[in-house]
Amino acid sequence: MVQKKAEYGAGPLFRVAGTVAGVMMGSALLVLANLLLLPALLVAPAAGSWVLLAALVPLGPSLAACSYAFNRLLAGHGTGVFRDFIRGYRMNFGQAVRLWLPYLLVLAMTAASLSALPAAVGPGSPVEPALRLALLVLALLVSTAALHALLLLSRFSFRTRDLLRLSLYSFGAQKRVALGNAGIIFVTATVLLMTTAFLLPVIAGAVVFLACLNSRPLLALVEEKFTAA
Fold it and tell me: 148 and which of 78, 153, 167, 193 could share a cystine (Cβ 3.0–4.6 Å)?
């Protein structure tokens, strides 16, 4: 019996190393695509919150591009995270902006409501904790829906309104995926609040990769139910 010689780079260690390198590259590309966010954070207190809101617009296309690259990496079809990120960014930029803006505006209004809550209900009001919790839960749900919409955009060529509907449909159709992605967002936000926001550029790629890994059943379900055989 002739024993086949193992190909160089085909072992599990090489695959793990390639995945880690891809995640690190994804983090770097996310940071580069959102470079305006740091100066916007610095000038927002003086210039107004609209500056920060404008700087957050490129976040949607960059998340869609990173999801596109990571989905191809997980499927074994990747041509390199850098190339796939650039391709996904160019391919989906316009639709990603249109898709991301409604979620961003809702999140901005939720943040404004949170900051104005003490003045609105009065100091020491017993209803403030409940209202604050409700707004935080709303922000988490909207963030999860936005993530699902951008993930679906990275995989499928659907209309923007259909992606908006599917992002809501995913909560009922794939409860475990929705709960897992909400947990990823919640844990990430908690870690950043307990440490420093400057940790985000380091862990951004890992967070998106975990969301892509967790969302594979959702993508498979949408492919089975809403695409032609």
Answer: 167
122-162 confidence digits (pLDDT tens): 777 778 888 999 999 999 999 999 999 999 999 999 999 99
Q: What are phi and psi of 66, to 5 degrees?
A: -65, -40
Distance CA(204)–CA(206), nearest Å, equals: 6
Q: Which of 204, 209, 184 is nearest to 37 (CA)?
A: 204
Tell me how far apart the alpha carbons of residues 26 and 143 are, in angstroms, rounded to a whole number. Answer: 20
Residue 78: how many CA atoms within 13 Å on its side-chain side?
Answer: 26
pTM for this structure?
A: 0.90
Residues 190 and 144: their CA atoms lie apart, in Å, by 15
**Is 94 exposed, middle or buried, given 0-12, 13-18 or 19+ CB atoms closer than 10 A?**
exposed
The position carrying tokens 């316009």 is 94
**Residue type at 60?**
G
Contact residues for 153 (Cβ-Cβ < 8 A; gap 6+): 64, 92, 95, 96, 99, 163
Residue with structure tokens 């590259």?
25
Cα distance between residue 146 and residue 180, in whole Å: 14
